[in-house]
Amino acid sequence: MENSKIAIVTIGQAPRKDMAEDIQQLRQGGLHVHEFGVLDSLSPSEIAALSPSQEDNDVLVTLLTNGQQVRLSKAKLMPHIQQCLHDLHDFTWILLMCTGDFANKLSFKNLLLPDRMMTNLVKGLHTELAIGLIGPEPEQQITVEEKWQNAHFDVIFSASSPYRFNALDLLAKAQQLEYDGADLLILDCMGYSTPMKNMIKHQLNIPVIVPREAVFTILKAIC
Fold this sequence. Notes:
The protein is an alpha/beta fold. The chain is 37% helix and 21% strand.
């Protein structure tokens, strides 16, 4: 699809400086990529109003253009995501840059969801793997585990934020998950990069998957 127009949508603000190199590689490969952020048109006070309350049990984590990590209530953010995607319906593909569970909640036929792509990718590898999952924040444990358990995997969770990256902390969490019986490690957030994976993979005896790397590879294959 030589003339495909691709919208890459972060749930934070665009452009994402931490993804700049990966997105540039897509463009160098001939893909017509445009970046958008769900929070782009919102003021600081409007973004603050999307913060999770104590009752929120589904928390998303993303990045602003100033480098600040923000925590967002998925329930509060959903109307903004839906409006953003509706505004981009003319694009050939819309890639939502978040590994949260949006299946059956967003129904655009040209929408690519990393969560759906990743769970089906891992199913294609093996259905009986014990999966070690690392996400940005400890409070995401229940929703991240449920997402993979609903895909019929045994999972073990830990947290180490890509937006406050600490290589030693990430390695320690990964090694503990391997020790606890994980057959495969997934850094379950689009904020994790290939260089982050490379810093730890040679010190582990299990494979490591980074969703951004896998999803962008699929995107290049279909466009």
